[in-house]
Amino acid sequence: MSDVVKSKEGTIALAGAGAVMLLVGTLHLVAPQMMMNAPAIELTTINHLHLIRAALGGAFIGIAALFLLGLIWERMRAFALVSIVVLFSGFAFGRLVSTALDGLPAGMFLGILAFELIFAALAVAALRTEQQH
Fold this sequence. Notes:
Elements: H1 8-30, H2 32-37, H3 46-72, H4 74-102, H5 107-132
Helix pairs in contact: 1-3, 1-4, 1-5, 3-4, 4-5
């Protein structure tokens, strides 16, 4: 019998963040220019494509695997939830610093910020609930 109590918040955070990172990573891997169109970044060399496919595509797919492993492998669950808190809080912090220093970004980026904060908050709530049991 398992001794890990799985909270609804944790399951939503791991599945949601895992799915989002898998989708975004896959899109950066297979269609890097399409993903760079929204921020108006033009990829003009092989090196640009290589950087986006590796640094965003490959990294985000690896991060998605970590989150999804936490969903299915109980021994990884707490680590994966902490990883969501650290990563998504870091993304959100960077966006907030950029907003303070550079001004308000496009609405799409504010929506992404909201999702980052929601996933981080869900993971924090899950860690509190799951560690109490």
